[in-house]
Design a protein that fits this description.
This protein has about 450 residues and is of the alpha+beta class. It has eleven helices and eleven strands. The protein has helices spanning about 1-15, 20-70, 75-85, 105-120, 160-205, 215-260, 265-290, 305-315, 335-350, 390, 415-425; strands spanning about 90, 125-130, 135-140, 150, 300, 320-325, 330, 355-365, 375-380, 425-430, 440-445. α2 (about 20-70) runs parallel beside α4 (about 105-120), α2 (about 20-70) packs antiparallel against α5 and α6 packs antiparallel against α7 (about 265-290). The chain is rod-shaped. Residues about 400-405 and about 450 have low confidence and may be disordered.
């Protein structure tokens, strides 16, 4: 359950940093700003002037009723005539008075309407809008507390709440939906390109990208990457042929030199020459190992116990302390991992002291962005270690530790290790162990398909 939660959390973090979200957010901002600006223009240019004109008209009607009441004693028929022919209806029956309910949207407009009428009349006015069963505007004048004035506004029945809501919510929704479709369509070739590049890194080969569909820009990019993959594949083939040639052409004369050295009468000179030839052969092997990065080797499930056992058999004269807590198989490049361990053991033997400690274990994720377990392989000697200032330098090709510890080798051992680990998307950690000696650990992330 926790792993699934972490997976969803990782996907959510990935989505937060995705081009899709950023594009949708920018377009959504523009759309909402456009809608808000449209409403503002409509309000300032159309609706607000209409409210002011209507308020002036209503104030004139109320002033006319005021005058009719003032002259009622002299001309009783005037009040009746005004009430009969005025657009405003006078309601004096309490049973017909409206029931006041708060309406947030309607009150926003009626409050402004009431303020404009108050400014014209100079007294307090209450305005209430009632839409059903027919639209009416109810007005209560503080001068006539026992009366309500009602104005029919049939034209307001043409207003559609659904149309207004559709404009406010539907337009942004449809815009965002279209943008999501377009961004998804644009990102699909990028995801295909990412998968192809990943396959090339992990498997050493990749499928050809389509060049006859999609936009012109995508076709050009796919064509360029197809050429790149073809060029890299050709370079890899040529490098393999070159390495095979180097291995054959140089080892043949080395073998003849060794046979010749074995027949020399001087034992001291013979042993020194043989050791030099063996050292040359080992250096040549390291050069070839460095050039052959292992990218052409397929990932497969392997039991690490078998690899460690083969290494310890190869160095049968060396004393090892072995610790392995991994009982299942892991998905790695077996020959590359074996070459990695051999290089680390060679370094430990050459520059350290026995026994050589070998260990393998599975660690929980050490990075919040990576929920996969970590394969930890460590090799440690019991020598004097190296200076802290030297640790970063000895990871570089053709670099070795201080002269006092380094009499042989090409300086490619740790560089080969770093290259193999990088091929597995891992990292190398080198430090002087608290109990003495140099410890080299490699951390390789294992995906959900890596552990069998």
């Amino acid at each position: 359950m926790k792993k699934r939660h972490d997976l969803w959390l990782l996907k959510f973090r990935y989505f937060l940093n995705s081009n899709t979200l950023h594009t949708v957010m920018m377009i959504s901002f523009i759309v909402f700003m456009s809608v808000a600006l449209s409403l503002w223009v409509f309000w300032r240019s159309l609706y607000l002037p209409e409210i002011k004109n209507h308020a002036n008209y209503l104030a004139s009607e109320l002033k006319l009723i005021d005058q009719a009441h003032v002259h009622h004693a002299k001309n009783p028929q005037m009040l009746a005539w005004v009430r009969q022919y005025s657009h405003i209806q006078v309601i004096d029956n309490p049973k017909d008075f409206p029931t006041i309910n708060d309406k947030i949207v309607a009150d926003f407009f009626t409050d402004r309407f009431a303020r404009h009428v108050q400014d014209e009349l100079g007294r307090e006015i209450t305005v209430y809008f009632k839409f059903k069963p027919t639209p009416h505007l109810w007005i209560q004048d503080s001068k006539y507390p026992n009366l309500w004035f009602r104005e029919p506004i049939k034209s307001y029945s043409q207003y559609s709440t659904g149309l207004f809501v559709g404009f406010l919510a539907g337009l942004p929704f449809l815009t965002i939906l279209v943008i999501l479709v377009l961004v998804r369509r644009l990102n699909r070739p990028l995801k295909r390109l990412e998968r192809t590049a990943t396959d090339y890194i992990n498997l050493g080969h990749a499928t050809t990208l389509p060049t006859h569909k999609g936009s012109n820009e995508i076709r050009k990019v796919n064509t360029a990457f197809n050429r790149l993959f073809h060029t890299l594949a050709q370079a890899q083939k040529e490098r393999t042929i070159m390495l095979a040639g180097i291995s054959h052409d140089l080892r043949t004369p080395l073998t003849r030199m060794r046979l010749t050295a074995e027949m020399l009468p001087d034992e001291f000179f013979r042993e020194g020459l043989v050791l030099d030839i063996e050292d040359m052969d080992a250096i040549l092997e390291q050069f070839i190992s460095f050039m052959k990065d292992g990218s052409d080797e397929a990932m497969r499930a392997i039991n690490l116990d078998m690899i460690f056992h083969e290494v310890m058999v190869q160095f049968n004269e060396i004393r090892f302390i072995y610790f392995n807590t991994i009982e299942h198989e892991v998905m790695v490049r077996p020959l590359s991992i074996k070459r990695l361990i051999i290089n680390l053991v060679n370094n430990a033997i050459r520059y350290g002291s026995q026994p050589i400690h070998l260990s393998a274990t599975i660690l929980p994720p050490d990075d919040p962005q990576n929920i996969h377990p970590i394969l930890l392989l460590c090799v440690r000697d019991e020598g004097d270690g190296v200076a802290d200032s030297e640790i970063e330098r000895i990871m570089q090709p053709f670099e070795r530790g201080e002269t006092a510890r380094t009499t042989q080798g090409s300086g490619l051992g740790l560089a080969i290790v770093e290259r193999i680990v990088r091929l597995h998307h891992g990292k190398v950690e080198i430090k002087n162990h608290a109990e003495g000696g140099l410890q080299v650990c490699v951390k390789i992330p294992l995906s959900h398909q890596t552990i069998s």
